[in-house]
Amino acid sequence: QVQLVESGGGLVQAGGSLRLSCAASGRAFSSYHMGWFHDAPGKEREFVAAITRDGDTTYYADSVKGRFTISRDNAKNTVYLQMNTLKPEDTAVYYCAAVTIGTRPLEVLPVYWGQGTQVIVSS
């Protein structure tokens, strides 16, 4: 099992940037693919981005392609989500998760969740 703790959320103006971090403890972090999801107001939890355990391959929801970047540092047991050109519709609670990844078609399924961090983008 792995424990996940997110940080870095906050209030930002539209067009601004935030960097979320997710620190992992427990079983070997580098053995897990990792992902980010979000709960937007009034919507079900949605996939945002994922990265393979070695960091070589990344996947993104269409809504964030070109604006968000997922990365990881296995030496620090941490996964990041760099969010640029933020929009009010990016407002959500963002969750880090250890995930499984299927590619035909793309299917990212959470195995372990963090507690979430709130991101609010003002217009």
Written account of the structure:
With about 120 residues, the chain is mostly beta strands. It is built from no helices and eleven strands. It has strands spanning about 1-5, 10-15, 20-25, 35-40, 45-50, 60, 70-75, 80-85, 90-105, 105-115, 115-120. The strands form two sheets. Strands 2, 4, 5, 6, 9, 10 and 11 form a seven-stranded mixed beta sheet that branches. Strands 1-3-8-7 form a four-stranded antiparallel beta sheet, with no helix packed on it. Strand 4 and strand 5 form a beta hairpin. The protein is globular and about 40 Å long. The relative contact order is 0.31. The mean pLDDT is about 95.
Measured by DSSP, the beta-strand proportion falls in over 45%
Low-confidence parts lasting 5 or more residues at pLDDT below 50? none
* C-alpha termini separation: 39 Å
Helix content: under 10%
How many helices in DSSP terms? 0
* H-E order: EEEEEEEEEEE
Which oligomerization state do the chains in this entry correspond to? single chain
Number of strands: 11
User: What general outline do the C-alpha atoms trace?
Assistant: globular
Largest sheet: 7 strands, mixed
Overall mean pLDDT: 96
Q: What would you report as the Rg, rounded to the nearest angstrom? A: 13 Å
| Main structural class | mainly beta
